[in-house]
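Deliverable D5.2: sample structural annotation.
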Amino acid sequence: MSIVVFEDPQCELLAPITTARLAAAVTCGSFRLVDLLEPYGSQVYGISRPYLQTIQRIDFPGLKIPDESFAEGKPERPITLLLNARIAPTTQSFAQIQSLLRLATQATQNPVPMVVWDREHVAAVINPPWTVEQLFHYGYLGVEEWLEKAKAFEVYECDLATIAVPHELIACNMACIRDSLEWRIQLGQSAAEGRTGVPRVTQLRQMGDGLFLADGASVGEYVLTDTRKGPIVIDSGAQIGPYTLLRGPIYIGKKARILEHSAIKDAVSLSHTTKIGGEVEASVVEPFSNKQHHGFLGHSYLGSWINLGAGTCNSDLKNTYGTVNMEYGFGKASTNMQFLGCIMGDYSKTAINTGIFTGKVIGVCSMMYGFVTSNVPSFVNYARLFGQMASLPPEVMVSTQQRMFARRDVQQRGCDVQLIYDMHRITQMERDRFGDALAL
């Protein structure tokens, strides 16, 4: 049995969420797609955008790139299931993937290829007529061609949701986090039994009504927990400061720190090694990001290695109380969401007292000052309030990356430096759209 996870061209439209990371490594409801596929071990392969393949090979060995597969004399491996890397990492998705694998393995003689659609996107292909070697020979550049061929396959009706545009991730996180945490609790309580065939999670113990802690997690004095709307899961090594409000559903990842007098509430998913203070609501924060001072973050997504300066706030509700419309590089999109904050790419920073208006998209490696009243391209110094906007050279971000990594005892690698240069190259069109407004 072989599973191939593929990135399609739609992944590029998920920017800035996917600019610095694999689509299968995006967090939603405390899980990533790579976590759901972990039980299948060495049977899982990954086709990603070319500039992310070194990161994939080093940081995500669970998504194999079979360089050795092309040796002469080795038999080619059939594919059991092709999965879109944008599949939402929910409990329902895990159940559907298991169901598709059972269906695929039952058809051992002359299997008929079938395609699973989500809206106009191919979510999965069952028993495709290609081998692992054939797909990897062309890699990402060949994805569009064989997706076009898959359109002729028999359709299999299956509810396998994908995330197509950035704001859908925030909506999906709110919709799935309670079920995801209840599943995580079940897995965590049975972890000591050595259960196989499911994602590995930390063993949990119940410390109160709906409050679950892993070994090494600590909760300070006078912490108020409210689990009426969903559980609170605090993973190993996480620390909760005193006088804090936690209102579930909430996931606080490994070695995360919640500072004193914070309010974390209503569908928050904090990844490992984050540092959070102030008020956070209905948001996803990826690893190594900091929002440790007072200020509001609501209905938003933060990538990795972000720092929000003291007093930074974002708006997640229009003064008219109407639904928020987003403006992306490919055009405007209606969200049907009344509450929607900001989407910020990896390595971006805000100065003190920065105010981010409703529904703004901020690229990777940008610095913001004052009021953010429009979308912000990648690699930009944005101080529009003061009439100043200028591009940021990648060399500045490489130096910043090195200093940030050193503060977290993370070694800066050649692939991390190269990622900065690659992201600067692929985001040039974002800066070009600003034209004369950007002093290049």
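Annotation notes: Residues 3-164 form a domain with the Spore Coat Polysaccharide Biosynthesis Protein SpsA; Chain A fold (CATH 3.90.550). The CA atoms of residues 143 and 347 lie 29 Å apart.
The annotation will be released with the project's public dataset once the embargo ends.
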